[in-house]
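re: that chain from earlier
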Amino acid sequence: MAYYITKPIKIPLGEDDKDAKGRIRTFLKLRGKELKSCVLHRQSVDARNKEDVHFVCSYLVEATKAPINATLYTPPRDVLVEAQKTDCKASYIVVGAGPAGLFAALYLAKRGASVTVVERGSDVPERSARVQRFFDGGELDVNSNVQFGLGGAGTFSDGKLTSGISSPLTYTVFRQLVRSGAPREILTDALPHVGTDKLVNVVARMRDEIISFGGRFLFDSTVTDLIAERGVVLGVRLFGGETLRADGVLLACGHSARDLFYRVAEQGAEVQFKPFAVGVRVEHTREFVNTAQYGTLFATHRDLPAASYKLVMNGTSHSCYSFCMCPGGVVVAASSEPDAVVVNGMSNYLRDAPNSNSALVVNVTAEDVKRYGFGTGPFAGVEFQRDLEKKAYLLGGGNYIAPCQNVSDFVANRTSTHFDVTPSYPRGVRSASLRQLLPEDISDALCQALVCFDRKIKGFGSGGVLTAVESRTSSPVRIVRGADFQSNLRGLYPMGEGAGYAGGIVSSAVDGLRVAMSIL
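^ sequence. v structure.
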């Protein structure tokens, strides 16, 4: 017998497993005993026709003969399952405990290398407590917050696992996440997510697994310098003066480790400007988004998840697009520097909060930041981000209150006297003109996009609120590496989103695996 993947099959909402199996057997033109088993392989929602919303599914089937409407299935490799301990005597320091750092550390540790993970933020319990204190109005901890700590910035997000890459290593990433406690549905959902409430436990289990293979973690430990001699990196220096030496340093510091970007450049690593995007968080009610995407008939159907969207406008000078959509989520306070406001989105696994939000961002190039007055150096994007975040803090009136404006008022360039949707940003918002914050061409692109998106989702551009500033979409720098994944400083391996080689949980995890596998 062999296994096959079926072509996509339409499955009505509410259909039970028995009916689905009969439908699959008919679709494959198999008789009763010729179909030995079938399990869901991939599931998506087709809501193009609001009168007939349904699932589109493919299945992994075991059959005694080759069926029609199916192709032979060959399972991908799971490199973490295959990883065997060797007599490797090398030692490695992994800087950063986000997806890239955790997956690289796990692979190296399973292969027998000595691994030390250095993370400037805290372990899960203390990090969660510090983040919540800040959300509740307390002091910002610049080292342990939404950006820094075990799991990286993705831990306090939606835990989305969508990715534009097609690496076979994504199979390993998803299987490892499930082994670490992520919901099994991520293996089959077309738009998989873990949710912040579950992701904190997933990264904690990965931490424990790395430790079980001999790895160690240093939390609340900020790397301030590389130890380098004659162009070779030999270790790192921590805040307070402690030094750690190793055969290689894997730099997975995340997109907000600005001080470290500057320091590695000062020590000779080649760093370049990388295009990124900035904008706002747009927030509508979950009911509005569900109705817009599923239609009135199916908006509250129990089988359907909270609806999402993906919107793009390719303008003549700037593109604008939705990013990191959080159905049934909240807008969070994502600051990591004093007197600066940064927003991001977050949702728990159930996605049952009253609002749904998404980043609405505009691409920014090197030519743009030059026109904005920030020069042409590799850190021009960093300084532009910082300037926006400081202005957002002032526009909100201080105390990490965020500036906020109705969508309709932003388009009409008028002050909001009330909010059409109750903003979910935890530290409070203040009515302000976001055009005072953003460069004119970015504001214009956002206005054009909102008008455009209103034609795609009626009411999108005339209702809801905008909260600013969404500035940490991706790293504004790239720490250059060669084909062997090393920087021009030998022994330094830049990787993940912060180094400019990924954009999200899955692609970061894959990049960490690629680097670790290359090293060994």
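The first strand starts at residue 2 and ends at 6.
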